[in-house]
Specification:
The protein is α/β, with parallel strands linked by helices and 244 residues long. The protein folds into two domains: 83 residues, no CATH class; 141 residues, TIM Barrel. It is 45% helix and 13% strand. The protein has eleven helices and seven strands. It has a seven-stranded parallel beta sheet.
């Protein structure tokens, strides 16, 4: 590995030029390989998007759901669950020419599903995936790709877990949208049964899918519909994972 590109998962995330510069200064002293940085783009920092783009970042990242409970500090300036904010920040990003990557899951659908499953006493790891079925990802990806078409924003759909989202990216490309489809090894080599076998250690977002969805993702790789297979490297300690 000779190059690292840091995703904006920090406390706080790099959502302002000052924070970006600080991280760059730290990296200059500590890192011995080439390094670049994603900036955070979210509801809390829409007005910082254009200044942040001039501070040296190579792309932005946005989560389209709320910060997980207890991890709010890690997601300051990084989330945009509101549709109006999503469109506005994409308009801003389009002005910069910088690409933006999206974690595409519908916040309202997730919260409604979690509430229903908890009420039914369905809290074992396998129900993590049930709370975030493919439609949660498909709906949000469809909306973001439409917004990209309307605003001219350059987008990456990150860690895609279901073939239908890849198909949506391909359709957007045919309309002239700059869109990239990325998936990860865990969506290609594991299915939701891993949640029954190793519990929370197989928990990720979007979640592992059915065997049919996994096979479908391989079909997308084989016909070259997927542009990138990325690791989505996001390490956690054993204790953090055990908390669920």
């Amino acid at each position: 590995v000779t190059t690292l590109i840091e995703m904006p998962m920090a406390a706080p995330p790099p959502h302002s030029p000052e924070i970006v510069k600080n991280r760059m200064n730290v990296a200059e002293k500590e890192v011995v390989v080439d390094i670049a940085f994603f900036g955070a783009a979210g509801t809390d920092c829409i007005d910082d998007i254009i200044p942040c783009s001039k501070s040296g970042i190579v792309a932005f990242k946005t989560f389209l759901h709320e910060a997980p409970p207890g991890r709010e500090e890690e997601f300051i300036g990084l989330t945009a669950p509101n549709t109006g904010d999503q469109y506005e920040l994409m308009e801003k990003v389009a002005q910069t020419g910088v690409m933006i990557g999206f974690h595409a899951e519908n916040n309202d659908m997730i919260n409604k599903n979690i509430t229903k499953l908890r009420r039914e006493g369905k809290t074992s790891p396998i129900y993590h995936g049930r709370s975030r079925p493919p439609v949660v990802e498909i709906e949000t990806a469809s909306k973001i790709l439409l917004f990209a078409e309307k605003t001219g924003a350059r987008v990456e759909m990150c860690h895609i877990s279901t073939p239908e989202v890849v198909e949506l990216v391909n359709e957007a490309k045919c309309k002239g949208v700059f869109a990239i489809a990325e998936t990860c090894p865990h969506y290609l080599f594991l299915n939701e049964n891993a949640l029954n076998k190793v519990g929370v250690f197989a928990k990720c977002n979007p979640p592992l899918r059915s065997e049919e969805e996994r096979q479908g993702m391989w079909g997308m790789v084989n016909d070259r519909s997927i542009d990138i297979i990325g690791s989505d490297h996001a390490p956690y300690t054993k204790e953090e994972k055990e908390r669920g």
